[in-house]
Amino acid sequence: MITKLRFVLSLKAAVLHFLIGLLIVAIVAVVVFRMWYPYPYRELSSGRELFLLVVLVDVVCGPILTLILFNPSKLRAELWRDLGLVALIQFSALTYGVWTIWEARPLFLVQEIDRFKVIAAPDLQDTSLAELPAELRSHWWSGPITVAIREPKDAQERHKVMVESVQGGRDYAERPEFYLPYEGAAALKSLKRAKPLAVFLQKQPSQQDAARKLAAEKEADMAQWLYLPVIARQDWVAVLDQQGQIQGFLRGDGF
């Protein structure tokens, strides 16, 4: 009887712990998916999978430890010590998990000749972003910024980038000093290598419904749209209008 009562009380404490954990995770999810990994970057950069891994470890392990350690027969000081230790472990794990998600977050969507490339924070770890214009600086509350790339100033600068990239170093997309606002002529430049969206839909017929839905949302004629592939952890394409502006994204290999 005592064992059964202990189990019931421990189970109630574990459920309460679980519900509190869910509330905290829901708050964290708003930050992660509204700010750092807005759609479709939660899939392009595998942010959703990383977040779910953190949640699974944190939300599940904490209540299990509470279920094991909670015992109403313990002295109050001992019980609070045990539960406090569980809370500390869970908080530390959640903090580390969120920090990992933050470190891996996408910062820029860079237009590179015939494609867009998602650049995450680790890709720029050896570079400084402080010299970027204010409108191109990423903030902790902002999602990825779309940028274009300027031409090299001279043959020497072009040669330096080419040699380093061939040797496994940084290419233009990983060099913020080449970034330009994605607007006007810079955006129109992306259309030089873009292909009609119809070509992509012929290769990826499963995306036709998604394309029609996007066109209806934008109140646009998708026959006028073009696309460029997106280089990321998953295969997607960026849908462009006649001014080179991104209207949305579709899943599939664009090459």
- Beta-strand fraction estimate: 15-25%
Helix coverage percent:
40-55%
Query: What is the total tally of β strands?
Result: 8
State Rg: 24 Å
For the termini, the CA-CA separation is 67 Å
Low-confidence stretches: none
Calculate the mean pLDDT score and round it.
87
Task: Tell me the series of helices and strands, N- to C-terminal.
Answer: HHHHEEEHEHEHHEEE
Number of domains: 3
Sheet/helix structural class: alpha+beta
Q: Report the major sheet.
A: 8 strands, mixed
Q: How many separate helices?
A: 8
User: Which of globular, elongated, flat, extended, rod-shaped describes the shape?
Assistant: elongated
Structural notes for this entry:
This protein starts with a helix and ends with a strand. Helix 1 packs antiparallel against helix 3. The model has no long low-confidence stretch (mean pLDDT 87). Strands 1, 2, 3, 4, 5, 6, 7 and 8 form an eight-stranded mixed sheet that branches. The protein folds into three domains: 102 residues, no CATH class; 79 residues, no CATH class; 62 residues, no CATH class. It is elongated. The longest helix has 35 residues. With 255 residues, it is α+β, with helices and mostly antiparallel strands. The chain contains eight helices and eight strands; from the N terminus they run H-H-H-H-E-E-E-H-E-H-E-H-H-E-E-E.
